[in-house]
Specification:
Layout: H1 4-16, H2 19-26, H3 30-44, E1 49-50, E2 56-57, H4 59-82, E3 93-99, H5 100-104, H6 107-115, E4 121-127, H7 132-138, E5 143-146, E6 155-169, H8 171-177, H9 184-189, E7 192-194, H10 201-210, E8 219-221, H11 225-233, E9 239-242, H12 243-251, E10 256-257, E11 263-273, H13 278-290, H14 292-295
Parallel strand pairs: 3-4, 3-5, 7-8
Antiparallel strand pairs: 1-2, 5-11, 6-9, 6-10, 6-11
Helix pairs in contact: 1-2, 1-3, 1-4, 2-3, 6-13
């Protein structure tokens, strides 16, 4: 009913963000990609792409992108079981969304475990844990580490445990801004480190202290989990850091905790689309094994 090459072209355009990049990824011309997309849209009778920068899938296109990604994975598994496919088996790359702090801490161990037995690779997309679910729901990824406890329809969910966060800063920064207490006055004056506009963790910490009072501090925008730590150590500002990244610095006195009893606990879950895929099962096993420390805290 639907040409496999046309589905691959659609998925490549959405994954790469443009017709030219999709053509390079599939080793064909941009004209060939355009023709395949037009043929698929004609066959389905729906607009599947929103042409722009980047090019994105329409809601109808998202359904077919999901089909394309799942089909590619199942094809990879089938060829592996048959012992055929040669070098093409190494081209399978599973789209996975991972929150920034997991990627900076425990998820690399999952990648290493997964790579130890198999030829599939991962196409990792880093996003805030509250927003990875959107990539999964749209079909842009086949699996995600997310903070959402409710499974996406058609997905399986596995609890991973919790990651603890604490508001931290350097001793010199604490002495400069918080020597008289962590209160409305000091929080308004002290610069804060924020990952991006989706990062609400610092605001939630402040809300526990100030309630609904307005809070407009100086902000450093730093879209890197490890840059957060370096910036905090350097005394640029305070922020909510994951304890696995900063516990050693706290123990050595290089960072101090603003309110020791006020910690943020972020429960994490692994969700993936339901499919009879040996590769997805291996990836899930690797993720659950690597996240064991989150469940034993």
């Amino acid at each position: 009913m639907v040409d496999h090459a046309h589905l691959r072209a659609l998925a490549a355009v959405v994954r790469e963000g443009s017709f030219d990049k999709a053509a390079a990824a599939l080793h064909v011309t941009p004209s060939a990609i355009s023709q395949r997309i037009k043929a698929l849209e004609s066959r389905i009778g729906r607009l599947l792409l929103q042409r722009g920068t980047p090019t994105t899938a329409t809601p109808d296109g998202q359904i077919l992108v999901q089909l394309a990604e799942q089909t590619a994975l199942l094809e990879h598994d089938a060829l592996a079981r048959l012992g055929v496919g040669g070098e093409s088996l190494a081209l399978a790359s599973i789209a996975v969304a991972v929150n920034h702090d997991s990627l900076a801490t425990w998820f690399l161990d999952a990648i290493v475990r997964f790579a130890a037995d198999g030829s599939a690779t991962l196409d990792l997309q880093s996003e805030d844990q509250d927003h990875t679910i959107g990539l999964l729901r749209s079909g842009a990824v086949l699996a995600a580490v997310t903070a959402r406890a409710e499974p996406v329809q058609g997905c399986r969910i596995h609890p991973l445990g919790s990651m603890d966060y604490a508001a931290t800063c350097s001793p010199a920064f604490f002495e400069r801004y918080f020597s008289r207490g962590v209160n409305a006055t000091s929080l308004a004056q002290a610069p804060v480190l924020v990952f991006n506009r989706k990062d609400a963790m610092q605001a939630r910490f402040v809300q526990k202290i100030l309630g609904d009072a307005p809070w407009q501090p100086p902000v450093w925008w730093l879209p890197s989990a490890r840059a957060f730590v370096r910036a905090a150590l350097a005394g640029l500002g305070w922020t909510m850091n994951p304890l696995p990244l900063v516990q050693d610095h706290i123990d050595r006195g290089e960072l101090v905790v603003l309110r020791p009893r006020m910690r943020e606990e972020a429960a994490l879950y692994w969700q993936h689309w339901r499919m009879q895929s040996e590769t997805m099962e291996r990836l899930t096993d690797a993720v659950l094994a690597a996240s064991a420390a989150l469940r034993s805290r």
